[in-house]
């Protein structure tokens, strides 16, 4: 057996040992739970695969877990989690949104959008204060998210090889919609940043395996044609490479490989590469005349209509045609494509401030915990997902929308759950 063959065997054995330990720990943790809670936790652990099916099953999964947590808390008279500042900030923001909805011109629609939105923060609370409270189950969920990442990559790879990109530059499997990159960038972000950290800071054998997975998943993200999601993953990966036991040599090697692949991709897929280069630069160079700016600026016009409480959560999609009918320099759209502008437009200055408190409480909690527990790779990288999702100048999906929130809050929930982990050294 050659030296390289021995290295592969050693790496495979090491990986098998880690996976076996994860599985055994998860089984032990589940066996300690009451039967009905065991079933709920198994259902939660199936999430990364349910999210690969379609929107309705994914929403059902998230909503059932959120409502089960509320029912469990009421039956057990457990309200200790309500004392957490970010939880109170979430309910404060929700209350302001309900008030804005009740004061809007389309009360029924706006109230409906607002009332059901709370299921997303409730899901995060369920994850943090119940489902992922045991670190063994938390680590198991992160591993399953990693498996989901790999599965999505192979699904999209199959689409590319079998039928090619839609319109020459986009992928849609398994949803039949232009959103698979959101699964990779948002649902999988907590696992992805850990993989990047391992690739740039672990031992050589493990680093090669993790680095290969990172590169493969980034190629797939590129093929989806989803610019913002690719940027999220690039920036998230860069932060991850600096967040845990930095090894300069491995960091440089990973970046060189990414640059080389980027150059090769431009040559092999010029139409897709054009979306990330020429098209993007042309849009930026147009400034206030760009389509992106015209969409975002429409939110400020809506804010001027009702600056205190806004036009009502979700109402922009109904009211923007009328609000912008005399503004040809602004583009009508279903939402302003920026979280903060949307909050100004739909919840006014009051909702905007409440939203800043809510988002700020999540960011502060994750960043502080990450800084204090840098030896644990999960803790050290946990701030990246919320920072990426709530970056103020990013182009975003609908703040109150269904699909975006399912992807986003499944990732945010795991990042927030990392705050349960105490400082400990991680062997990778």
Your description of this structure?
By secondary structure, the chain is mainly α. The chain has one domain (3-285, 336-420). 73% of the residues lie in helices and 0% in strands. The chain contains 21 helices and no strands. It has helices at residues 3-31, 35-45, 47-50, 55-75, 85-102, 107-117, 119-131, 135-162, 180-187, 189-201, 204-224, 227-241, 248-268, 270-276, 278-285, 291-305, 316-323, 339-372, 377-380, 384-389, 402-417. Helix 10 (189-201) crosses helix 11.
The coarse overall form would be globular
What is the number of helical segments per DSSP (H or I, 4+ residues)?
A: 21
Number of domains: 1
Question: How far apart are the first and last residues' alpha carbons, in Å?
Answer: 26 Å
- What does the radius of gyration come to? 22 Å
Mean pLDDT: 91
> Which structural class is indicated by helix and strand composition?
mainly alpha
Q: What's the total count of β strands?
A: 0
**Low-confidence runs of at least 5 consecutive residues:** 1-9
| H-E string | HHHHHHHHHHHHHHHHHHHHH
Which strand-content bin applies to the residues?
A: under 5%
Percentage of residues assigned to helices: over 70%
What is the topological layout?
Elements: H1 3-31, H2 35-45, H3 47-50, H4 55-75, H5 85-102, H6 107-117, H7 119-131, H8 135-162, H9 180-187, H10 189-201, H11 204-224, H12 227-241, H13 248-268, H14 270-276, H15 278-285, H16 291-305, H17 316-323, H18 339-372, H19 377-380, H20 384-389, H21 402-417
Helix pairs in contact: 1-8, 4-7, 4-21, 5-6, 5-18, 7-21, 8-9, 8-10, 8-11, 9-12, 9-21, 10-11, 10-12, 11-13, 13-14, 14-15, 16-18
């Amino acid at each position: 057996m050659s030296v390289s063959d021995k290295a592969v065997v050693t790496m495979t054995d090491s990986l098998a040992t880690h996976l076996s330990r994860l599985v055994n720990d998860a089984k032990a943790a589940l066996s300690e739970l009451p039967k009905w809670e065991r079933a709920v936790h198994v259902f939660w652990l199936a999430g990364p695969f349910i999210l690969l099916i379609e929107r309705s099953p994914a929403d059902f999964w998230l909503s059932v877990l959120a409502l089960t947590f509320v029912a469990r808390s009421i039956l057990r008279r457990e309200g200790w989690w309500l004392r957490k500042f970010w939880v109170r900030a979430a309910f404060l923001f929700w209350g302001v949104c309900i008030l804005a909805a009740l004061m809007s011109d389309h009360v029924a629609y706006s109230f409906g959008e607002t009332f059901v939105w709370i299921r997303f923060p409730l899901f995060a609370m369920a994850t943090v204060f119940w489902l992922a409270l045991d670190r063994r189950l938390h680590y198991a969920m992160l591993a399953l998210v990693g498996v989901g990442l790999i599965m999505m990559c192979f699904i999209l790879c199959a689409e590319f090889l079998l039928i090619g990109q839609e319109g020459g530059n986009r992928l849609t499997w398994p949803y039949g919609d232009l959103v698979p990159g959101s699964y990779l960038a948002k649902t999988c972000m907590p696992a992805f940043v850990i993989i990047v950290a391992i690739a740039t800071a672990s031992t050589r054998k493990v680093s090669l395996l993790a680095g290969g997975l990172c590169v493969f998943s980034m190629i797939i993200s590129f093929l989806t044609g989803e610019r913002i999601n690719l940027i999220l993953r690039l920036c998230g990966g860069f932060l991850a490479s600096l967040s845990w036991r930095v090894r300069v040599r491995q960091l440089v090697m990973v970046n060189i490989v990414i640059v080389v692949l980027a150059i090769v991709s431009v040559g092999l897929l010029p139409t897709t590469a054009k979306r990330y280069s020429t098209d993007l630069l042309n849009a930026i160079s147009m400034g206030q005349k760009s389509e992106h700016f015209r969409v975002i600026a429409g939110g400020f016009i809506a804010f001027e209509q009702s600056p205190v409480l806004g036009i009502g959560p979700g109402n922009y999609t109904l009211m923007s045609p009328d609000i912008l009918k005399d503004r040809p320099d602004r583009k009508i759209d279903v939402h302003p494509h920026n979280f903060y502008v949307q909050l100004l437009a739909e919840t006014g200055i009051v909702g905007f401030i409440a939203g800043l408190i809510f988002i700020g409480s999540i960011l502060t909690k994750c960043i502080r915990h990450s800084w204090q527990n840098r030896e644990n790779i999960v803790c050290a990288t946990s701030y990246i997902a919320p920072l990426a999702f709530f970056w103020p100048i990013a182009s975003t999906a609908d703040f109150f929308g269904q699909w975006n929130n399912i992807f986003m809050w499944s990732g945010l929930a795991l990042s927030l759950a990392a705050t349960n982990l105490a400082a400990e050294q991680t062997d990778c």
